[in-house]
Amino acid sequence: MIKSLSIQNYALIDKIEIEFHHGFSVITGETGAGKSILLGALGLILGNRAELSIIKDKSKKCVVEGEFLLDKIDLELFFTENDLDYGRLAILRREINSSGKSRAFINDSPVNLNLLKELGEQLVNVHSQHQTLKLGKFEFQLNVLDAFINNPVLLEEYQHMYGTFRKAEKQLHNLILQNEQLKTDEDYIRFQLSEFESVNLDKQAFEYLADREQLLSHSEEIASGIMQCKELLDEGDTNAVQLVREVVHMMNKLSGYHTPIKSLAERLASLEIELNDISSEISALSSEVEFNPGELEEIKSKLDMYYHLQQKHHTQSVDELKELKDKFSNQLTSIESFEDEIQKLRKKVSKYAKQLTDLTQQLHAERVHYAGIFSTEVKSILEQLGMKNARFFAEVSNLDEFNYSGSDKVEFLFTANKGGTPEQIAKVASGGELSRLMLAVKSLINQRNVLPTVIFDEIDAGVSGEIAGKVGTILKNMSENHQVLAITHLPQIASKAGHHYHVVKTEEAETAHTKIDLLDDEGRVEAIARMLSDEKVTETTVKAAQELLE
């Protein structure tokens, strides 16, 4: 429950501190005094977005802090998982500076706004007039029935399976699109591969062909050069081998006279042997370079295929061509294997759809069962609220497809008149009837979902007199399980509360200020008497106020 609320520099509020209590409390005040401003400030520490315009004095920051008792709700796991200090008391704080920058804290630990909102949703439920308008919407009606059933395990199991189903369905859709695109490209890919397969994409094979092409293309020049080399080495009248041989012969003669000459003679003898070997290898080369126009043409044809592929695919090497061939090959393999993948995924989607169908049938059966109970209990509360002829039905019907909440449509049908035909709430319910319907719905839901604090912002719209008193009784009964706060303008409701807060707006020069007071017994009598009066408090209205309070 909310233990206290501190507000500084917010809208018309300079600084106020409010202590709250267990049970049923009301907040009253003149129209425009600032009752809803309190809700706006509270909303900041419940994770609502902040606007710069709410800062009263732009030279200071706005600070809202609330203390919440956690003794009736188990949030230890939430605090532990989010690395927050846990205790019987939780302090939520929000600060907004003049530049619009916002900071949020839980027990003095900085947190992001989403975490603050997540905790706030487990501490306080705020009902506003805007929410009453949602009562006529089908999605809200479904959520109301599910909240009444209060079996989150089944719904969460369904929603988890629905997420799995939708993910697999999306994968299947994407796979089918990819397969269709690949099939469009299949002929092109096969043609490319046929070109690659006509060439031996081996780096060594390519280099051999390139070298061989160079050799054969210059065979005449090479043969002529070899012949000249042979003649210079050992076939001419004066040749290198013969000259070296003569030098060796002369050096051998002189080696007896001078020792270094002998060493040179040995080296020259080795040179003569090397020259003879070289001459033999040159002779062997001459047979390799015999011009073969057929072979040259064949080699050029193969090289042209290499060069054609390199130019076509903008590559620089055989290795790059090989990588590209592998890529085309993999694409073709993918095309061939896509059908298998699609069939496997189709089976998965079908399996998940069956599981979803089973879960939706369970949800449907549960909703149909509880819809009857819910309808009966709503009607009972409406009778307490003076609508004795009202008829109310929560009707559950099947949809043709799954959605996040199942495959059900829930529709609230209502008529306030005896003999009337129940129709959609949005078509037949007046403002006062909507308020009483929402109160009935809220009271039933809150019996099953024990949030520590429930706040009603003018739930009494469109009701008055005896009915207002009954609204107050229901709110008081609700406060046995919750802390209930109600902003009201009706004395019949205010008189039912255990605690009464009064909001007052004062004006000084060009500045307006709002303050809030917890009224004592005398103050309550005066406040309720004022609510009963047209202009000023009279002895009659004072007595009426006392009677209401008694």
What is the averaged pLDDT score?
Answer: 86
N- and C-termini, Cα separation = 27 Å
**Helix coverage percent of residues?**
55-70%
CATH class of one domain reads: Alpha Beta
The overall strand count is 15
Output the strand order for the largest sheet. 2-1-4-5-6-7
How would you sum up the major sheet? Answer: 6 strands, antiparallel
Helix tally equals 18
The CATH superfamily of one domain is P-loop containing nucleotide triphosphate hydrolases
Structural class: alpha/beta
Rg of Cα set: 48 Å
CATH topology of one domain: Rossmann fold
Strand content: 15-25%
Short description:
With 550 residues, this protein is α/β, with parallel strands linked by helices. The protein has 18 helices and 15 strands.
